[in-house]
Amino acid sequence: MAIHRKKHQALSIIVFILILSITLLGCTSQSTGDASNSDENKNKVTVAWPRDIGEMNPHVYNPSQLFAQSMIYEPLVSYEEGGELKPHLAESWAISDDGKEYVFTLRQDVAFSDGTQFNAEIVKKNFDAILKNVDMHGWLGFIPMIDQTEVVDEFTFKLTLTEPYYPTIQELAVVRPVRFLGEAGFPEDEDTSKGVDESVGTGPWVLDDYKEDEFATFKRNENYWGELPSVEEIKVKVIPDAETRVLAFEKGDVDLVYGEGVISLDSFIQLESTGSYETSISEPVATRQLVMNTNVEQLSDSRVREALHYGFNKEALVEGVTSGLEEKADYILSPNLPYTSNVDVTTVDYNIEKAKQLLDEAGWELPEGKNIREKDGEPLEFELMFNSAESIQKTMAEALQSEWAELGVKLNIDGVELATQVERFGDNEFDMNFYSNYGAPYDPHTFVNIVATEGFGFNEAISSYPDKDEILQQIEAVKQTTDENERQELYTSILSSLQEQGAIVPISYISNVAIYQKNVSNFTFSANRDAHPFEGMTIEE
Fold first, then answer.
1. What is the pTM assigned to this prediction?
2. N or C: which end of the chain has fewer CB within 10 A?
3. Rounded-to-10 torsion of CA 138, 140, 141, 142
C-alpha cells in the first residue's frame, strides 16, 4: 500500500478514536426534557444516554450514535460470540481462491421498513454511495481496496478488490459505514455524506419520534423479516450529566443505563449494593495497555521494560482501582477475540526482587543515600502520559508512580486532554502512554494494522525490537493470506512477539456494564462492541 495512503488511514483512525471517546464521555450540560411521560405504553424500555443520537445516517460518523444506527440498519454479515461471522442480510458468500472476489447470495425475504424490496441493486447503490467518499472511510481497510461492485442478478452481489484482504468479511460486520439505506432515504444527488431524506432500514426498529438533545423514540418494526423484538418501544432520554442519569434511574424515570463511561464505577457499585436492581457485566471489549516507547534510551533495554512489568502488583492495582469490574489482563488482546487464544507468552507476576535484580543487571544502581537509581550519572526517570478526563487512567498512573518508587524509579505523570494524548502518541513524543484497543469486531486485524502504520505511535514504540522488520512483514502477510491455518500461525507469532518483548504491557480487560430495573429481563450485551443490546430483552408487567 502506498505511504500516503497509510498516513491517511492513520489519521483517520486517530479521528475515529476521538469520535468514539467523545461519544462515550458525552457532554457536560444537563437536559432532562421528556415529551412522553404521559405515554400509556407499558411494553417499553427507557434508556439514558449522554448525548443526542444524531442523524440516523448509516454512512456517516459523529454525531450519529452507533447503538442507534444499529437498531435501524443491518449488515450483510453479523459478528457473534467468539468472533464467529454469521449470515445476516446475506444468507451465504463465496470467496475466490485468490482472495479478491466476494460473491454474496442475499436473503429474498427482506424488506425495508417502508415495504420496499432489499436486493442486489440497493446493496450496490449503498456501496457506491460509500465509495463516492472513500477518503472518509479509509480507516476501514477493505474500502480503499474495492475495485468493482456488481449486480450479478436480483439477489446476488459481487465485490471485487484490488488485492486480497482477508478481514473484508469481518469489516462488513461493523456498525458503519457498510449498512443499508432504503431507496427512499437517498437524496436526489445520491450523496449520503450530506444527509439522508429518511432513515429507512431493514432493522427491527424504526425511529418514530425525536426531539434534538432531549429524546428519541424507536418503535418496533412490525414488518421485520427476522424475529420480532418482545419490547414494542425503546425510548432514549438524553441526559448528559452522569449524576443526573443516576438520579433519573433511582427515581424510576429510566429503566436501563448501560455502556462504557455512562455510569461511574462508584455509582454502579453503590446501586448494585442496594439489591434493588439487576446488573450485568459484559465479556471483555478491549484491553487497557501501557505502551513503553523503546525509542527512549532507558526503555530500549528489554531488561528495564521487564523490570517495570515485574515491579507492580497488577492484580491488586486492577482490583483496587476498578473494584473488580475489570479483570487483570495477561494478554495484549483478550482471548475472546478471533486468532488470539493461542498466543504463547510468559505471563509476568509481581516480583519486586526480580525487578530489582533486572535493573541491577542493566547497570542501574541505587547510590547510597539516594532513592532514585542512576547510570552514568543519569537518573532512571520517565514520564507517563494519561487522559486527564479518565479517572481510571489517573488512578492507575498514581499507583504505578508509587510502586515504581520502591524500585528506585522516578515516574512523572502527566494528565493531558484526549486530543493532546492522541497527537503526542502519534508524534512519538512520549515515554509511556495508556491505550486501549478497538475490540470486537475490529480486532485483531485493526490492532496489528495500527502497529504497522507509521505515525500512530506503536510502530515507533517497538523500534528497538530486534525482529521489528519481521513482525511488520508478518502483519502485511496476515492481511493477504487465504489459508486459515497460516493466518492463525501468523497471528500467534505477531501477538506473541509484540508482547514478549515488553513494550506493550496488558493491564486490564475493559467490560461494558449495565444496570436496570427489576422488571427488565433477558438483557444481554451484543458480541459487537458497538451494536445495540436490546435483542431478546423483555419487560415483565
1. 0.88
2. C
3. -100
